[in-house]
């Protein structure tokens, strides 16, 4: 879109091809999520927020997570930190992200430690500057921690202690990361207490419940009592992938159909994101030191 | 129940079948209310009218005129209140009544002003064209559903939603078609709250009564607790795929020099290629030492539990 004016930029050492430009998106822009049942577009502000995505297998959780990650990938100042026990769900973003964690709980825990350190450093920095939270165009960008299949890390892989440690670290990041731009988007099939500690689950402000098999499962995602009030994602048609109830700004669940990125689309967006990030030097693959953000 | 009363020609008896049956205590309360209204109106209006009239007439004449005026107005108010149950029915069915009148008068006028074949043609066009054009038909049908739903909701409120002691039902305000069904605004009267509508199984009963798939009730205003929104869902409006606009942010002419991750040989992708190995206790597995938390290295294996992963 703004290819013309960036062609004159001398700073970018673009070789023979066009100079990569940012997509012009910012994580401070709300993410386009889909449409609601009245045909109106639904935008989800993700900055200073966290989202929990639940729903039965095949209900479209990973697709929604991909939409959120896709938005963040096109934001120049957002680093991606992807944890995916299933590898393929977020795997298409592997080249565009800073850290990609597959089914390796120790790597996951090491990564969360890094994020936690960054978070602490950022708070120390903010305190030194007598500020309470970051804003747009700040000294440092935001970090999106997207975790698909939390259950793999918090209930399946490793031993109980590792799982507990993972949950505790994630809870800390969800609880404290908000103000320094660390956003957590997590998906799991049924976030019941044997999968995620309720103390972690209840911290997520925003919830998306794709189709669930029972009213109780829907309530586990959305919060207790919504099914009794008529908001149960059990009523969603099982063949209607990507439809579900979203609790966001209004505080009342809204029936939403999530937008869908096909694999080709994801690859296209991811390649572009990788390319722009490589050229602008934003991408630091695994050997970045966590102390970098402390400066 | 039917109640005959010599004092009133209408009101709490049901004359035609559509009048909601009025319970005896409610009928009595209406009569009492009407009597009170009669006296209050007569007194207040009479006094005011007498005061004003005695400026123009002789004071005694003025007072008499005022009293007469007050009594007449009180009687009107009395009659209105007594007749209210019937008037209310007219009010509820007003759109249908007006529509029916329009159809009858329109038909008569048409027949009188045009020959038979032409009027038949016009009727066929007026009915047939909207029925043949899909969007128009759906529009008309959705407005018709709005009318139906208001009657169904009224029936529900009278039938099984708890009302207050006066038997006054929630006021059903506007109804509007939505892509999924209808949305109706309701003003709750004293004695009711949103919780009564949300009580166990109420919304499901509402859905049954409205011939709908699902009914949801929620507050419609941050200011007034009495203003409530009822969403009635009959259709699945979200069936088709929504295409994400994110690829539009990608310029068309990016070079295809996207890095690809190193390829992986297709080994171990089928069952025979994966040997049957004895399960080792996870503590034996070498693992990288985690900084900052040496305690996790003490292993307490709980093993793999597939039921957690569901
Ligand atoms: N918003 C959508 N619109 C249309 N189709 C969708 C949408 N979301 C998902 N689908 C379809 O549903 C399928 C399953 O979606 P997805 O992989 O996101 O489910 P999931 O909830 O992550 O399942 P699992 O729990 O097994 O990981 C997709 O392959 C896609 O075809
Ligand atoms: Mg998935």
Task: Report what the structure shows.
The complex is a heterodimer of chains A (295) and B (310). Chain A is an alpha/beta fold and 295 residues long. In chain A, helix 4 runs parallel beside helix 6 and helix 5 crosses helix 6. Chain A has a single domain, classed as Rossmann fold (3-Layer(aba) Sandwich). In chain A, strand 4, helix 3 and strand 5 form a beta-alpha-beta unit. In chain A, strands 2-1-10-9-8-3-7-6-4-5 form a 10-stranded mixed beta sheet, with helices on both faces. Chain A is globular. The longest helix of chain A is centred in the middle third of the chain and has 24 residues. Chain A contains 9 helices and 10 strands. Chain B has a 4-stranded antiparallel beta sheet with strand order 1-2-4-3. The radius of gyration of chain B is 36 Å and the shape is elongated. Chain B has 310 residues and is an alpha+beta fold. The N terminus and C terminus of chain B are likely disordered. Chain B folds into 3 domains: 78 residues, no CATH class; 40 residues, no CATH class; 105 residues, Threonyl-tRNA Synthetase, Chain A, domain 2, CATH 3.30.980. Strand 10 of chain A pairs parallel with strand 5 of chain B. Magnesium ion binds next to helix 2 of chain A.
